[in-house]
Specification:
single chain; mainly alpha; 6 helices; globular; disordered N terminus
């Protein structure tokens, strides 16, 4: 039995892990190291959009549990919790950049489509990478 004070953290950690897994599969498909995602504004925005949509679907407060989940998700994606927090901060700063914003919108849309139909896995990074036939840089 879990007590109420740890249940939200467990939920946040579980969501972060699921998001990082969904993204990690896409990075593998296009042979990109998640650690390099900052070099591609679309991919970086896509990750942020997917994590943010997960937080919204889970009805997490964007300024507390939602922000924690996104930072933890980035940390799990790059296997470095401190870097995850830094990536979250950088993502917030980039929301108005066009490529980042386009990626954000695609990531959020992919997550929402998956939430509506479990057979529609998020794949925007993989689709974009295959269409470009070159590593995202």
């Amino acid at each position: 039995m879990t007590n109420e004070s740890t249940a939200p953290l467990d939920r946040v950690e579980t969501l972060a892990r699921i998001g990082a897994s969904l993204l990690g599969v896409q990075f593998e498909a296009v042979e990109i190291a998640p650690a390099d995602l900052e070099g591609d504004d679309f991919a970086f925005g896509y990750c942020f959009g997917l994590f943010d949509a997960m937080a919204q679907c889970a009805k997490l407060d964007q300024f507390s549990d939602g922000a924690t989940m996104i930072a933890n998700g980035f940390g799990k994606l790059v296997n470095n919790a401190a870097r995850g927090k830094a990536l979250f901060a950088r993502a917030v700063e980039r929301v108005e950049e066009p490529d980042f914003s386009g990626g954000y919108e695609q990531g959020a849309a992919d997550l929402m489509a998956w939430a509506a139909d479990a057979n529609r896995l998020p794949a925007g990074i993989a689709r974009r990478g295959k269409r470009n036939e070159a590593p995202l840089q």
